[in-house]
Amino acid sequence: MKFKFWKLPVFLDQKGGTCVSEFKDLPFKPRRIYFIFDVKQTRGGHAHKKEQEVFVCVKGSFKAHIHDGQTKRSFVLNKAGQALYTANMVWHEFDHFSADAVMLAISSTAYDGQKGYIMDLDQFKELCRKKSS
Question: Is 46 known to be catalytic?
């Protein structure tokens, strides 16, 4: 599975809403979390050689664009609890952030700078072609 879009359980009552995900439900052991907010330009625009991630819409909206080497897909995340899983070697970038958007990311690796990143889309496509031959 290179990517998966799904909805996390959301519970609403008179006190408000709660969105829940247990780490055991993730397709990897989480090593890091971070969140992105007050976005001024496109984020992401890379693939990871080893890292897997889950991106969650916490608030607002944004658009996710992914490419797994063969298929390009776009998803609008605009409700609390929407999540997108990307395996390693999946190009991902995000744009069209609403002013109030907050995106939570859960990662399978600790941050190591950009050592494990592929920052050029053409290089990414070429690596995917070589891998599939």
Answer: yes
